[in-house]
Design a protein that fits this description.
The structure holds 3 protein chains of 3 kinds. Chain A is of the alpha/beta class. Chain A contains 23 helices and 37 strands. The N and C termini of chain A lie far apart (about 65 Å). By secondary structure, chain B is an alpha+beta fold. Helix content of chain B is about 20%, strand content about 15%. Classes of the chains: A alpha/beta, B alpha+beta, C alpha+beta.
Chain lengths: ~800, ~220, ~210
């Protein structure tokens, strides 16, 4: 710490910090346009000029490029500084059009605000301003107005320093300088929306928000991004009972203020006209609208009948990861206590072992990436599945100098920053791990890097066709690395919270292993044995052992890798009850569909991938008669004669704080008032009830049958896919690229494929990627019109007809 | 005190009391036979709003919602939308797609007129706005937007109460202050529905100089 | 990949000189310009591909510098200095004369000749001065400038040589003690390069040299 004097007040600030940041943190705001807390200084706008006393006298200095020194004396409000600020603003406004009334930034514009607070009262500019065509769409989501640009380079620096896809750049120079993209090369970044948010003027605007509202008619509430597992802080802004915008909030622990475009623009499903607004009951081929009483009565009757005829084990529940922890707790209580069945799972056969996910929570944090020397990513392509975590890893490698190792069947989005890019053929992961452990051959360098701690290991399934046991083995290996923190990653939004709440076949609420005593749960009677996971449930349903299926925000036909199995299961069961926001492929087969509230329509907590519990809030009312999941489940339980007695979501949260050991003491009050960035469960002083044992109950894909084809299948997800919430968002629905197959050029030439290939008989456009391991075919999962391939780990690939 | 003095005092007091009456008797009557006759309203009378058009018929409103933002009664609801490229409604990128004023809430303060950057919303001398239900008191764009010739629409076509003749003089002023916040704005090109685009003489007291011409 | 083998070979040689591939963007842009006569979008894409940066970054660099031409500039680029010394000595008149004779406004080009303003070309002593394919002529007058343009159109010299042009059209010069450059610029613009100029066989070009 050093002592500096700002406007006559002595303050203690960290040595070497930039003056503008030190001043802000100690209470003096220096106006700025180009400087951003999360990006390197560039000193372009000159708005942050301050007077610094130095050996050569008092000098005007840009405070964003000036590190503090001990004894520094700074004046931020002297007449000279004010004159400089007026001058800078006058220059910036020379060519800035005064179309604030129609500008989407008007009312929340730093240039507007600072012109008011620091600028000259009058303009001396009488000449015609510069004119460009406006606005020009530089991507599907972002519009560019070059007239308004003040050349602060925030977007340029963001795309270079933070997101690593510099598709937007300065062009020309001097008076003609402008920000633009290359011709026919759109700003197709997964993170382009962030540049809209950090643009200090209205030069970059979002097409989704264009002219939808002005800042003064927006209400806002702090919440958490509902589409990823990183727990990104967001501000949800709504007007006239319609959510209009998500903004990233700088949560130091998770997202640093950034959001991916799917999360930022993916809120439009909330107001989708396809939202379910009334309960539906099956009649003939379709559904008819019924009242809540009829629907719940029929559901309770059907479930009771199944329990009576076949026992409680014939009822199973899939899903629950789309809701809040309170919803999940209600579901777990309903299944284990009211129904008495242990067959429930929030994962859709795409996850990792529940013990792995739950027991490691709190052991490693995303923030550990800031201090890591080595980062190992042996998981799905983070850029596609965990975009914000991808940004944090990129920052560790690019800005903080960590050694980055990626292990994946192909080069990932991090390839350009990875020190070591290791690729392998799916199915040979265990061999690779053995070689890595031994550090043999070409992996010696990688092994040596892993011995330099602190190590952060991000572990998950690289693709949906991969054996989940591999991730367990990698975790076991990574835990023994020096000063290791392990982050197990799965994609589905609140999977972590749902599993922690006991929506898992082998866990009870609060991270307690199933099979033991249920005394802590407060349930009067419950089945606490180990039940079936999603694949087990579907197989049992197909075999006729499970008769009733409760789908809670789950679409097995689309989301479960083995779509064939899901289809057989849904056809075989007697009763399907679905609690969902949309009529999805699976929901359409349900006997009773109960409309649920979505995010921004209900309060609750969610848990992110590091075990951080965060509060999500309500800002709009739901469509029609839709109700919160917990309330539907509570009503259903009461009608079955086995009431749960939940009165409100907050009452459930208190029950969680009391009965879920790992969540002890985590109440809404705490999250609302004290820990706004969330609390990692278990809190200090609370013991983690689950010990990690590297094992898994999950079976490998295709383990049942013989290897079908000669090519190992890599089934990875892309950011934009055909999931229902993406499909229902107008802005992002069309961004899914559609299905294709990737082959190594050697393989493609060997089989003579050109243009198209047939993968297990499905014709797909061919792409070539030399980084893909030989003998592998990569196909993105759940793309529009994509083939159902998840049932096998190996497929046949043949050259497609009509290249 | 004598009786004479009392009488004198009484008469004097009576005279005092009637003085106002007698004085007023000599003055012309101000009461008019409304609705047969209309009184000429002050130039700055705050009557009903209209949304104006440019000479070429384009709407002036750009849907910026500044009027809605400044409205102390929160009685204005505006939504903007992208101008259709082939058939723009207003100049520029954006136009007022929805424009509603709830006249039951409006307090006729004219802050919306002050806030309007394009002089799209102005106040007229129209004041008869009685309705028989609350829904009719919400004026939508249909009622607010003037005809291409500048004639305001009225809620009820057959309304014989509206004094359309007075509108010519109803737009003599636009802002209490000049566009730049200075009192002196004579010589700044302005716009009024009746006078069109042109130089508007300053009003008395606004520029520090005497008005050069008569009020528009 | 639309580049000739020779250009790709040249690009490889350039890339080998830099520890960071992106450092080679600027010399490669000259190769791209030589390939197409000016910087095309495809050329910039090619440079981006070779250096591992995005096309936008390449264009950002290319558009910053005047001498990377992003429009066709003809075979002979006449750059008339209009900075202060030349301006005071009547550069405007000379430029207008060039424009009139060439029939092209400054900043545009036909197949043969391109005309442009230039900032100070360092020949203030011999103002007004201009460059033809970056070869200097000093002490121009409007009449001489017209002759120069007419000569370029009619003689179509393969090699542009400063001394030769100076003798034909020039006037007062800044200095006469400079190193005499025999060879001059070669071929259609952009004929020079920061790389490989010395490899050009001047003898082979000798026959085309007009006097």
């Amino acid at each position: 710490m050093v002592t500096i004097t700002i406007d006559g007040t002595e303050v203690q600030v960290p040595a070497g910090e930039l003056l503008i940041k030190a001043a802000e943190d100690s209470g003096t705001y220096i106006p700025r346009f180009c400087w951003h807390r999360r990006m390197n200084p560039v000193g372009m706008c000159r708005m942050c000029l301050v007077e610094v006393e130095g050996p050569r006298g008092i000098m005007l200095t840009p405070s964003c490029t000036m590190p503090v020194n001990d004894g520094m004396v700074v004046h931020t409000k002297s007449p000279t500084v004010e004159k400089a600020q007026e001058g800078v603003l006058e220059f910036l406004l020379l060519n800035h059009p005064l179309d604030c009334p129609v500008c989407d930034k008007g009312g929340e514009c730093p240039l507007q605000d600072q012109t008011l607070s620091h600028g000259p009262g009058e303009s001396r500019m009488v000449e015609e301003k510069r004119h460009y065509e406006k606005p020009i769409p530089i991507s599907d989501l972002v519009l560019l107005d070059r007239e308004r640009c003040i050349l602060c380079a925030r977007c340029v620096r963001f795309s270079e320093e933070i997101s690593g896809d510099p598709l937007i750049e300065f062009m020309d120079r001097g008076n003609a300088a402008e920000v633009n993209t290359f011709p026919d090369e759109p700003f197709a970044s997964y993170f382009s929306g962030n540049t809209v948010q950090i643009c200090p003027v209205g030069a970059l605007t979002a097409s989704a928000y264009r002219f939808r509202a002005r800042p003064w008619d927006l209400r806002e509430v702090a919440s958490v991004n509902p589409l990823t597992t990183t727990g990104d802080g967001v501000t949800v802004q709504a007007s006239q009972n319609e959510v209009l915008r998500f903004l990233g909030v700088d949560n130091d622990a998770t997202n640093h203020g950034w959001l991916d475009d799917r999360s930022r623009f993916g809120f439009e499903w909330i107001a989708s006209p396809d939202r379910l607004a009334t309960p539906l009951a099956k009649s003939g081929d379709g559904h008819t609208e019924v009242s809540w009483g009829e629907a719940l009565g029929a559901a309770a009757e059907n479930l009771s009948a199944v329990i009576e005829a076949h026992g409680p084990g014939a009822v199973a529940a899939i899903g629950g990861a789309r809701g809040t922890n309170e919803d999940a707790y209600a579901l777990a209580s309903f299944m284990r206590s009211s129904v008495g069945s242990p067959n429930l799972d929030a994962r859709l056969d795409d996850g990792l072992g529940t013990h792995l996910l739950s027991s490691l929570a709190g052991k490693g944090e995303i923030g550990d990436l800031e201090t890591a020397r080595t980062v190992l990513v042996w998981a799905a392509d983070l850029k596609e599945e965990h975009p914000v975590l991808y940004l944090r890893v990129r920052r560790a490698a690019q800005e903080l100098g960590a050694t980055l190792i990626t292990v994946h069947p192909t080069a990932t989005g991090l390839a350009d920053r990875a020190t070591h890019t290791v690729t392998y053929r799916p199915g040979e992961g265990h061999d690779l791990l053995d070689r890595l452990r031994a550090g043999s051959g070409d992996l010696a360098d990688v092994r040596a890097a892993l011995d330099e701690g602190p190590v952060v290991a991000i572990v998950g399934r690289t693709g949906l066709a991969e054996d989940p046991a591999l991730a367990e083995a990698v975790t076991a290996f990574a835990r023994d690395l020096p000063q290791a923190s392990v982050l197990p990653v799965v994609r589905r939004a609140n999977t972590y919270g749902a599993i922690d709440m006991g929506v898992a076949p082998d866990l009870l609420p609060g991270r307690v292993a199933a099979g033991g005593d249920a005394g802590h749960t407060g349930w009067e009677k419950a089945d606490t044995s180990v039940g079936l996971d999603t694949r087990g449930i579907l197989e049992a349903a197909a075999d006729g052992r499970v008769k009733a299926l409760l789908l809670v925000g789950a679409d097995p036909l689309r989301d479960v890798p083995d779509a064939d199995l899901a289809a057989r299961a849904l056809d075989a069961v007697d009763v399907v009850i679905s609690i969902d926001c949309f009529l999805t492929d699976s929901t359409a087969k349900a006997d009773i569909v109960l409309p649920a509230l979505g995010f921004t329509e209900k309060e609750g907590t969610v848990t992110n991938l590091e075990g951080r519990v965060m509060k999500v809030n309500r800002i709009v009312s739901g469509p029609g008669q839709a109700r919160a999941d917990w309330s539907i489940i509570d009503d259903l339980a009461a009608r079955m004669g086995r009431p749960l007695g939940f009165e409100s979501a907050e009452a459930i949260s208190l029950a969680i704080a009391e009965h879920a050991p790992a969540y002890g003491g985590i109440t809404w009050f705490l999250l609302d008032w004290k820990e706004r960035d969330g609390v990692v469960a278990p809190r200090d002083g609370v013991e983690q009830p689950l010990q990690y044992i590297p094992t898994t109950s999950l079976r490998a894909v295709g383990s049942g049958g013989a290897k079908r084809g000669g090519f190992a299948l890599h089934l990875g997800r892309l950011l934009y896919d055909d999931a229902v919430l993406t499909r229902q968002g107008a802005s992002i629905a069309d961004l899914a690229p559609g299905a294709y197959a990737v082959l190594n050029p050697t393989d493609a030439d060997r089989i003579g494929a050109n243009g198209h290939v047939e993968v297990d008989g499905h014709r797909l456009p061919l792409r070539r990627d030399a980084s893909l391991a030989e003998g592998t075919v990569a196909v993105p999962f759940n793309q529009p019109d994509g083939p159902p391939l998840g049932g096998s780990s190996h497929v046949d690939v043949a050259p497609g007809a009509g290249a | 005190m004598s009786e004479q003095q009392d009488l004198f005092t009484a008469v004097a007091n009576m005279w005092k009391g009637f003085r106002v009456t007698f004085r007023q008797m000599r003055k012309p009557r101000v009461t008019t036979q409304y609705p047969k006759e209309f009184r000429e309203k002050p130039q700055r009378f705050h009557g009903r709003h209209v949304l104006n058009r440019y000479d070429d018929g384009m709407e002036k409103c750009i849907g910026c919602e500044l009027c809605a933002g400044v409205c102390p009664a929160k009685c204005i609801y505006v939504r903007g939308a992208d101008n259709p490229i082939d058939d723009p409604v207003s100049p520029g990128e954006r136009y007022g797609y929805v424009y509603e004023i709830n006249m039951l809430r409006c307090i006729f303060c004219a802050l919306c007129v002050e806030a309007c950057p394009t002089e799209a919303i102005t106040m007229t001398h129209l004041f008869e706005m009685s309705t028989t239900n609350r829904q009719d008191a919400i004026y939508t764009k249909d009622e607010l937007l003037v005809q291409p010739d500048g004639t305001p629409n009225h809620m009820f076509d057959e309304d014989h109460l509206a004094d359309f003749g007075e509108l010519a003089a109803a737009d003599g002023w636009m802002r209490a202050t000049s566009p730049q916040g200075r009192a002196d704005f004579s010589g700044v090109p302005g716009w009024t529905p009746s006078a069109g685009v042109g130089l508007r003489p300053a009003e008395q007291g606004q520029s520090g100089t005497e008005p050069e011409g008569e009020d528009a | 990949m639309s580049w000739s083998e020779e250009s790709l070979q040249r690009a490889d040689d350039i890339l080998a000189r830099y520890p960071e591939k992106r450092s080679a963007v600027m010399p490669l842009l000259y190769v791209a310009m030589r390939e197409d006569g000016y910087l095309t979008d495809d050329g910039m894409r090619q440079v981006a591909e070779l250096t591992g940066v995005t096309p936008a970054q390449v264009q950002s660099t290319a558009s910053f510098y005047n001498m990377y031409k992003r429009e066709p500039v003809g075979k002979y680029l006449v750059s008339m200095c209009t900075s202060i010394s030349c301006f005071l000595m009547g550069a405007d008149d000379v430029l207008h004369a060039i424009e009139d004779e060439a029939g092209i406004p400054a900043g545009e080009a036909d197949d043969e000749i391109g005309v442009e303003h230039a900032e100070c070309i360092g020949a203030c002593g011999g103002a007004p001065a201009c460059l033809v394919n970056y070869e200097l002529i000093e002490g121009l007058t409007p009449d001489k400038a017209k002759e120069l343009v007419a000569w370029l159109r009619s003689a179509k010299p393969d090699v542009i040589n400063a001394d030769e042009m100076q003798a034909l059209f020039g006037g007062k010069t800044s200095f006469d003690w400079g190193i005499r450059e025999e060879r001059g610029a070669v071929g259609p613009f952009p004929a020079f390069g920061p790389f490989g100029t010395a490899d050009v066989n001047t003898d082979a070009l000798e026959p085309g040299r007009s006097t």
